Amino acid sequence: MNIILASTSTLFSEQYLVYLKSEIIVLFKGVDEIIFIPFARPGGISHDNYTKKAAEFFASININVKGLHEFEDKATAISNAKGFFTGGGNTFLLVKTLHELSLMNVLKTTIEKGTPYLGCSAGSNIGGINMKTTNDMPIVYPPSFDCMGLVPFNINPHYLDPQPELHHNGETRETRILEFLTQNDIKVVGLREGNWIRRIGDQITVEGTQPTRIFERGKMPYEIAPQSSL
Amino acid sequence: MNIILASTSTLFSEQYLVYLKSEIIVLFKGVDEIIFIPFARPGGISHDNYTKKAAEFFASININVKGLHEFEDKATAISNAKGFFTGGGNTFLLVKTLHELSLMNVLKTTIEKGTPYLGCSAGSNIGGINMKTTNDMPIVYPPSFDCMGLVPFNINPHYLDPQPELHHNGETRETRILEFLTQNDIKVVGLREGNWIRRIGDQITVEGTQPTRIFERGKMPYEIAPQSSL
């Protein structure tokens, strides 16, 4: 496998995907065209407009982008693709669409054979075992929460430390993930913005600028440094 | 109907339910015992311990509390109850449990006949049409997102204004609710902490100390003052 699962597409005050540019060039080395999966539709943007946004970035590294929604036979398009990028947005919408079109499994098996994959935010959630550690609002009802399991754990993108100065009684992110662990025995990687997971073959590491917070049943949450194995 | 759907159980630096005490006394006037629904299990607390927490508060206003989990025949217990309180926690866990035990509908019809109901946070979400505007993490997979529809709209409890100083690229609450409206034509009441919805018969108002933010498809979000009709 050859994949990047990033916490976010965009760092504060930066342009789309720019902080990941050198990594993306390495990921897609020798690839001149990828399929973009626009189904998470952030802010309700159309599939066409979201694909244009991705295409603008990839033009800067000489990679052509086609939206998966443009293909009549999407499963064959996935099988034949040279690379994938799944953008962020709403994970419920993304997972519902992939399951309803019966694409989750063909995407998984194609990536497992070595086709490079980039996911950001919701696109990273679907690389985990299931989507039960997304931050997104359940605006639609997917037929299943199961995802691709490209890594043997779940991801919490945009991981956010407690903000006690807010004086707000909604649950902190840590509280939510600990609640998840009461119902599921699955490791959760709390991926702060600016960090990403890199899998090359069987080697899985966390990369980026910040430590990463790990949650496991029966253990206190703990931090690991950039470049640590997962 | 005679119900309160509150944004939160606890205000910052206050004790459990204290800010709502005078309202709760009015809601449960003439009632000496209520059923507490502990299924949302905040932080993974046990049903027994969560029920004790509620019972301690209600003892201060001379109301006895029994946990719904204590009854063998829960549907009959609901039908015969003199009042209900559903505490906060994880809405997915609450809704899954109510649907799997086939209790959502009997609870709805009993409340619609006039049995008083207090909900906080997740307990307020289930008073809406569906749970698609919860803030909670989908730690379990409910068989349906449908709720009781005690009011003709959805609720977003713990409504939080954008926090631009966070420099964080996760979606704001407003962005999430606007995404909901791209997929659903249902009014959403963004209930800030300290506010609650009061329904007496057919009259529905929003109460509390802060304005309330309303989201409707095709309109700009707008604010209404305390005591406004909904």
Question: How does this structure look, described?
Answer:
Two copies of one chain form a homodimer. Chain A has 230 residues and is α/β, with parallel strands linked by helices. Chain A has one domain (2-224): Class I glutamine amidotransferase (GATase) domain (Rossmann fold), CATH 3.40.50.880. Chain A has seven helices and eleven strands. A seven-stranded mixed β-sheet of chain A has the order 3-2-4-5-1-8-9. The first copy, chain A, has a four-stranded mixed β-sheet with strand order 6-7-10-11. In chain A, strand 8 and strand 9 form a beta hairpin. Chain A is globular. At the A-B interface, helix 7 of A face helix 7 of B.
Discrete helix count of chain A:
7
By secondary-structure content and strand pairing, the structural class of chain A works out as alpha/beta
Share of helix of chain A, binned: 25-40%
According to DSSP, the number of beta strands of chain A is: 11
Q: Any idea what the shape of chain A is? A: globular
Mean pLDDT of chain A: 96
**Oligomerization state:** homodimer
Largest sheet of chain A: 7 strands, mixed
How much of the sequence lies in strands of chain A comes to 15-25%
Task: Tell me the series of helices and strands of chain A, N- to C-terminal.
Answer: EHEHEHEHHEHEHEEEEE
